[in-house]
Input
Amino acid sequence: MYTIFICDDEQKILSDISRKATAVLPDAAVSGFTDGNVLLEAIADKSCDILLLDIDMPEISGLDIAKRLTVMPQKPLLIFVTGHDELVYDSLQFHPFGFVRKNHMDRELPGILADCVEELRSQEKHFCFYTAGVGIKLPLEEILYFEAEGNYLRLIAKDGEYRFRSTLSSVENALSGSGFVRIHKGFLVNQAAVKILSADEAELISGAKLPIGRSYAESAKKRIMRYMIG
Output
């Protein structure tokens, strides 16, 4: 079940968008907000999958909210909702997934939500992140491991490495059930990339040797051995 947040300062419009979104995706959990600051608090507490966001709002605009989202580790698919076409250009800097015009809601909303579902299903087999302002989408099987570096992570893949702002716990939660195992406070490894497992070390198919922390050893070894045995 996907989670949809909708933010528009006009209650009537918010209710209309919520109703139409529920009609398109009846199994989705839809929540509405008329206050952008309350929306940000909700996203910080529990990220959503899809965010329908009005661009032109008082106090804090949709563009201001989108800017705040760029530093969050888990970003929803952002769809700007607007009645002012002239604001669309300013919003492109935040890499929205798409746009819906208020006066074409009935025609445009079903299509963009269907595209969102397709993208979310694709992301279940990929890891998406931003580095240096560029969006990257990697197949999970290409990723060897993640390493913590302060407020950043190093992602080591078969074709090279990347660095982006996030936390290991956040990525671990995002990839829960996808075969990534926390073996150390500073390392999250793809169990499929482990070639040799010893008492205090995991050697990967790349030749890299990663430490296994004592507090993670029992559960990590059990999961990886279960995978290796098949």
Notes: Helices lie at 11-24, 36-45, 62-69, 88-91, 105-123, 168-174, 214-229.
